[in-house]
Amino acid sequence: MTLAPFVRIVAQGKRRARPLTQGEARESMALILADDAALRDATQQESGCTLERVDLDWPCYTAGRTRGVPLFALAAKLMALAGYKVALHGWNSHQGTAADLRGGLQAAGLFGGGLSYSPLETLNPIAFRLLKLRETLGLRSCINTVLRRWNPLAARASVQGVFHPSYRGLQWCAATLLGDCNLTVIKGGGGDFERHPAKDTAIFGLQNGMEIHTQASALLTDTRRLHEADRPIALASLWSRAQEDPFASATVIGTAALAFWTVTAEKSVRHCTALASELWDTRKIQERSPL
């Protein structure tokens, strides 16, 4: 069987075209992934690694040209310091030096202790090739959205950042269809799950399977943009305290607060903000102490 029948369904013109059903979407993805059942079900044999279930899924597939230093990586590390297993996954090596997530994680010594990062080309080379079709097509395809909803390690909760606000509702609807129960989606910096600390943040998603639509209040009154070219931040320096930047610190704390809130649905955002702030203030001590 080929993809032709599915292409005809969605490309017959304005009056005759229709979206694929769940069954059709699953079947077409199975063909794309060379006979695997679907992207979430596909077992990666080529990597030779065993995928361990984690607490929080954190997709990182930003492609924004204005993407600055990935401060959300430090928020993920705070989650790990609190004893959670956090799985970052994505493809970011095409970004500029400042935005290079892999390089930043390595330079800051953030790997381990509950925090992992899996590059897409290792997790699923076929999906990676699909993502890179952008270089051929000149624009993104639906695989960019699919990968954000992937959750390859079957984490019990997920966070997602989107660039276009209309995608917030789309992602939680997809999560509901997939049987997921805990998801937080925000309009994040560069399309990543990264909160602007000086703006109120609209939150969409699911908590214990129930739809949520709420808001987190701004932490600062500063009017600066999330990433300022004339105020460079070094991930390793900020983590080690060699560099101090209140705005960047508030970005980390605010982002971590929403991540904590996602995995501890019974807590308030205010409670989670206090926890994130405490962990940030004592991060180097916590890093040296066993949990």
What features would you describe in this structure?
It is a single chain. With about 290 residues, the protein is of the alpha/beta class. The chain has one domain (about 55-290): Nucleoside phosphorylase/phosphoribosyltransferase catalytic domain (Pyrimidine Nucleoside Phosphorylase, Chain A, domain 2). Helix content is about 40%, strand content about 15%. It contains 13 helices and 7 strands. A 7-stranded mixed β-sheet has the order 3-2-1-4-5-6-7, sandwiched between helices. Helix 4 (about 100-105) links the parallel strand 2 (about 85-90) and strand 3 (about 115-120). Helix 3 (about 70-80) crosses helix 11 (about 245-265) and helix 11 crosses helix 12. The longest helix is centred in the C-terminal third of the chain and has 18 residues, at about 245-265. The N and C termini lie far apart (about 55 Å). The model is unreliable at about 45-50 (pLDDT under 50).
